[in-house]
Give the backbone structure.
Amino acid sequence: MTNLPALDSPYWDAEYETMARDRLRDLQFELLTETIAFAYEHSALTREAWDEARIVPTDIRDWHDFTDKVPFLDKDAQRRFRDERNDPYGGVLCRDPAELTAINSTSGTTGDPTLVPELWGGGFVGRPAIMYRDFWGMGVRPGDHFALFLFTFRGPTYGFVQQLGAIPMLFDYDVSEIERLLRRSIEYRPTALYNFGGTMINATAEIAAAAGIDPRDAFSSYRSVVFAGEPLGARARALADEWGMPLFEHSNVGDVTACFECTAHDGMHFWEDMAYVEGIDPMALDHHDAQPITGNRVRCELVATALTNRVAPLVRFRSDDLVEIDRTPCTCGRTHARIWTIGRKGDEVVVDGVSVLPVDVWDAVESVDACRLGLFQVVRPQRAVDTLHVRVGYQDTPESRLGALRDDVTNAIAQATGVEPNIELVPNAALLRLGPPHKIPRVTKR
Amino acid sequence: MSLWGIGQWIDDRGVRRTWEVGSDEINRAIGAAPNVLAGIGLERGARVLYCSMLSEAAQFWPLVVGAMLRGAQLSCADATAAEAPRIAMFTRQLDYHAVLGVTPELLDGLDELGHPYHEIFGPTPVVGARPGAYERLVAAGLKPHHFVLVGPAVALATEPGGPAIVDEHEWHLDAEPDGVVAVTSRRDRSTRFDHTRTAITASIPSPDRLTPTPAR
């Protein structure tokens, strides 16, 4: 266990979490200078991009140089490098592969999973931040039980729970584990649950009813229930409210770091001593063309640079994620910026000039009882389409009722988006097999 | 006794039973794991891919750390049908000395993708397959090792077709009259096991070895 803060402290690392922004900015530039020198020397993809841009790390003397001169990287560039150079790490690995402890992978929800090289106990500089600061802030304390409801592809995640002095309770990220989670929650009274999203919350209602368990009792000890990966639909949010679940949203920040809501529930903090995050005009062609978007809570595309990663740091990674960012201090007392996720730029479908993102059809799908798990895919062969094609999962419906169900879903989505959709109904189980467990690709080409 | 965590094991009725795991016992398992992995020839610089579920972390964590202690590299994937593309991606892009914990569900996923087993596992020297998956790999012409979660205990064969072996200092195995394997803990544990019936049926040539019959 690392040195723990005072139990009544709301902060894991008060000095860093509440650091004045001008000092934080200086710290970031110090870390940035080290990172770009390291990445330029060791990352073949970064070196290639910088050589093409005719710059070297010593050309970057201030923030203006950085935004003006440094080219963007993106996932396509990594995949291209991987395929052309036969480099499984897409040109970003900065270590001798023999030094690595583990090679895990991204979720693969939006394409091929890509490899994530890891060096345990030496892959990062800087102070413990992500997860530690977040869960301590949510109220996890030594001796607590902490329910982990997760997959394993990101490697053994339970170590951070033990570093907080808590005891992990281990569950598979699967609907079939919900009853066990509810029963063990009543038995052990854990204070944190990570990760329990909309599909799981929706499924809990029926599972709890069938098992004779009151979800309000089962969730009564939790100080935080974290969901990630997808927004919560209206139905799941209503159930969570009814059961008194203290929800906290969590998301990825450009494959560089992650962000969590704090107790103020006003955006998700990312730790700026770990990552430098920029907002740019989503339509920008390249770094010469990119207009910085610095206003608070203005829609922009997220670009992230790792500041502490010393295994495979990404520099100016253009994420394709549409977000809003706010850099004003939070009422929780932390000075680090907050983020709101909107969707992926590549997920937008334009039908007769009307822009539709998955989040726009979500509540409509869930509002139809047979589709209450909110499983759907927007079929997007290209950005502009003649018809909005949505593949929607259903349950508990005989074949003779499918026509009426299709009409119900069509009407709900048309009302929500203003676009008459073409609905393809498929059983929930068929959709659930398409992605990581219970997190399906929300947009698909076919 | 301080707790490392709360995992689960599966009993003879297929029910997941709560398993409180002490820090001392997990540390003993970590201490033993490098030798277990040496038994399948995992050397410094080699790679191992673990196919498991988070609920099985108490069984797999010692093997994860054991790989690290041997200087080997590890990868992780869920042992489900939906993870078949990830397993295929890993084995296509990287060379593994061992893939441990292969389940029937994972093979179902490979079947759906149309990936022949020999294409995915053929180049891997050691494929540790669980009951139900083992027989399918043998039928496909591969030579897997038995890999068995005997309730809380992990058993791994050191050679294809050979019996799977548990840590004799920690566990004692018995076959019940109906073929069910019962497990007894030999040392202090947060949760004591005393002739506890597991989900595994097998023959028991000696108290630390078993040759499974297909899963129940």
Q: What stands out?
A: The interface with chain A takes residues 3-8, 16, 18, 45, 47, 50, 52-58, 61, 64, 68, 73-78, 80-83, 85-86, 89-90, 93-94, 112 of chain B (CB under 8 Å).
